[in-house]
Design a protein that fits this description.
Blueprint: H1 17-26, E1 36-40, H2 54-57, E2 58-59, H3 61-72, E3 78-82, E4 95-96, E5 99-100, E6 103-107, H4 113-124, E7 132-136, H5 138-142, E8 160-162, H6 166-178, H7 186-195, E9 205-212, E10 218-222, H8 238-242, H9 264-267, E11 270-273, E12 276-277, H10 288-291, E13 297-298, H11 301-313, E14 319-322, H12 331-343, E15 345-347, E16 353-355, H13 356-359, E17 361-366, H14 368-373, H15 378-383, E18 386-394, E19 401-402, H16 407-419, E20 423-430, H17 446-455, E21 460-465, H18 475-480, E22 485-488, E23 491-492, H19 512-525, H20 528-536, H21 542-575, E24 578-580, E25 591-593, E26 598-600, E27 622-623
Parallel strand pairs: 1-3, 1-6, 2-11, 6-7, 7-8, 10-25, 11-14, 14-17, 17-18, 18-20, 20-21
Antiparallel strand pairs: 4-5, 8-9, 9-10, 12-13, 15-16, 19-27, 22-23, 22-24, 25-26
């Protein structure tokens, strides 16, 4: 279900809080000698369209942000480790300057959560020398209890789970380092703070208390909803995290040094960057507005330009992806950011100055509705270095959801983008009841929509499957309908399959048909004929033509691997015995909410007695009643 919201006026920490905490923590002795390993867990079963290639060429922003927060707070022996790049590194083998790590941070999306559990279990194998274990990321935000009760005997766990952003980590580090004794480990200091109740006033934490319920089970403490950082400029500079990256390799131990600054671009070709947070829409399948507590935040024009400049000039990076929820959400923000970017000058390797149009390749996400409202700003967007925009179209016929998208508006918008040399990237959702193909004058069929989008200039195509998404108000009701697959032949489906690329929720008695429809939609868009059309297209803008050729090559290559991974899955769907969820699962352990002074103890699986407080929904797009909710996972 959706996250609760703090009381109006209490959503944000006070201005300057991040700098205050960093200064306090960094002033304490001995922190520069404490080794810290920040892992981004990765499940290789998710390496299919639409993520393949992007996942390897773009280091995740989340783990870099956490590593940067540690570094700025005085922990100088920090490494940001991406499991896709270093699949054999484990916490127990990590040594930085010859010392075993004292702090392990693991961050994961739901689809990558199982590898993060294994990291925690590996850290526990170090016995009395194990590090302080902290967990975070989207999985932790919505199901923090899953980081407890791990291991063969259920006695392994994270020490603390952050259900939010970097501010929670800094508040925790401030409290622990303030009460850390001489020659004491971070784990020892944390344990004393926890047992004395000194962490209870830090919102956004979940940890295990000394309490036990009537059945002898441990009780988890949830300190409440996080406070957000209103001004994103307060967070550490994007360049800090890029200086802490573990190089790609197959060894079990860490390399002596992180990637050299001038070689980062060779591995992370695309720099993912936080630019804005929030979205004004209130789609019932999306957790983003509730997570952001219905707020809108952005970096200042000066700060964003400075991050582009440092990464472009010092790191030689030129491809950037804004990890936005909806970059065009607010016109004034768009105009201010693009104006500053367009006016800026950037140096190349030889020290020659040029504008963003020549030096940057910036991409982001937005809705058709908002970009059309700002269509007069598209020439400015091009001068600011905009290369591509990913659009959450979802369904051209608006049968699934109506966010103001129509075929005519799509044609108009794609034409305007082409005129400016900006690539339109289309993202659709194939939903229950949607036919594979419809008559030519009807765009409801998923293959019809794929064909339409290529014809009218889409450079890339994403087709995910409509399924349950954690953190949405429709999640529980969808599971209660009994249409979400829980197991096949008695084996529970892995969390990696909640990636939008595996059919999980459908009323079709033969779910493999819907999975096949998704593959056929990809084949309708990515194929040798369309590649040839892109090559022979002499009328399109040169930049658009090159981009469409590149996307076709990458798409066709990825499609081969995607089909290979889908064949065994479809055979299981077709011939296996399917089990279905009947209700949403309850928490693994009782949870005491300090902000509500209530005990969240399930009376039966899937039911909770804890009260939930929700903010009033912001008026958004109309959603036609369907038996499903939707997920579309971003890389970061």
């Amino acid at each position: 279900m959706e996250l609760p919201k703090r009381a109006r006026g209490d959503e944000f920490a006070r201005p300057g809080r991040v700098a205050e905490l960093i200064q306090k923590i960094a002033g304490r002795p001995g922190l520069d000698e404490i080794p810290v390993a920040c892992f981004y867990a990765f499940d290789f079963r998710t390496r299919t369209l639409p993520y393949r290639f992007y996942d390897q060429l773009m280091h995740p922003a989340g783990v870099r942000a956490i590593a940067a927060a540690f570094h700025e707070a005085g922990f100088k022996k920090v490494r940001a480790i991406f499991e896709l790049w270093t699949p054999n590194v484990r916490p127990s083998n990590c040594r930085i300057d010859g010392k075993p790590i004292q702090i392990l941070c693991t961050t994961a999306m739901q689809i990558h959560s199982e590898p993060s559990y294994r990291m925690i279990e590996d850290a526990w194998s170090m016995g009395k020398d194990r590090p302080l274990i902290l967990a975070g990321g989207p999985k932790a935000i919505y199901e923090p209890d899953h980081y407890f009760g791990l291991g063969p005997n259920g006695d392994m766990h994270a020490d603390a789970v952050a259900v939010g952003e970097e501010l929670i980590l800094l508040e925790l580090l401030d409290r622990v380092t303030e009460n850390r004794g001489a020659n004491e480990t971070m784990l020892q200091a944390f344990t004393r703070c926890r047992d004395n109740g000194w962490l209870d006033d830090i919102p956004g934490l979940v940890y295990m208390s000394k309490e036990r319920d009537a059945g002898g089970r441990p009780v988890l403490i949830n300190t409440g909803i996080q406070r957000l950082v209103r001004d994103l400029d307060e967070l550490p500079h994007a360049a800090v995290g890029f200086r802490l990256l573990e190089p790609p390799h197959r060894k079990r131990e860490l390399r002596p040094l992180p990637i050299a600054q001038d070689r980062v671009y060779r591995h992370s070709l695309i720099a993912s960057m936080i630019t804005t947070h929030g979205c004004k829409f209130a789609c019932s399948y999306c957790p983003i507005p509730a997570y952001n507590q219905r707020t809108w935040r952005s970096k200042s024009p000066d700060r964003l330009v400075d991050e582009f400049r440092v990464l472009r000039e010092d790191f030689n990076m030129k491809h950037f992806f804004g990890t936005d929820d909806n970059f065009f959400n607010t016109r004034s923000t768009v105009e201010e950011l693009f104006t500053a970017m367009a006016r800026a000058q950037f140096k190349d390797k030889r020290g020659r100055l040029s504008n963003a149009r020549r030096r940057l390749r910036f991409s982001t996400e937005a809705t058709e509705f908002d970009v059309l409202k700002c269509k007069d700003l598209l020439p400015l967007a091009r001068e600011a270095g905009t290369w591509g925009i990913w659009f959450g179209i979802e369904d051209l016929s608006a049968e699934l959801i109506n966010k103001g998208q129509t075929p005519d508006k799509t044609i108009e918008l794609f034409r305007l983008l082409h005129e400016q040399g900006i690539l339109p990237m289309a993202m659709l959702m194939h939903h229950d009841g949607q036919p594979r193909r419809t008559p030519k004058d009807n765009l409801y069929g998923i293959l019809n929509q794929a064909e339409f989008l290529f014809k009218h200039g889409a450079a890339s195509f994403q087709c995910t499957l409509h399924g349950p998404a954690y953190g949405t108000k429709e999640f529980e009701t969808t599971l209660e309908k009994g249409i979400v697959i829980k197991s096949i032949d008695g084996k529970k489906l892995p969390e990696a399959y909640f990636d939008g690329n595996h059919i999980l929720a459908t009323s079709d008695p033969k779910p493999a048909r819907m999975q096949m429809s998704m593959l056929l939609a990809y084949m309708k868009f990515y194929n040798p004929v369309n590649l040839a059309k892109a090559v022979l297209d002499k009328k399109s803008h040169k930049r658009v033509r090159k981009g469409r050729i590149l996307m076709q090559v990458l798409g066709i290559t990825s499609l081969v691997a995607t089909i290979a991974k889908n064949i065994p899955w479809m055979l299981r769907l077709k011939f296996g015995k399917l089990g279905f969820w009947k209700e949403a699962p309850g928490p693994k352990f009782p949870i005491r909410r300090l902000d509500e002074e209530a005990t969240e103890t399930p009376t039966k699986p899937g039911k909770s007695t804890s009260p939930q407080v929700f903010a009033p929904a912001i008026p958004g797009p109309s959603l036609k009643p369907l038996p499903l909710v939707t997920t579309r996972m971003d890389l970061n």
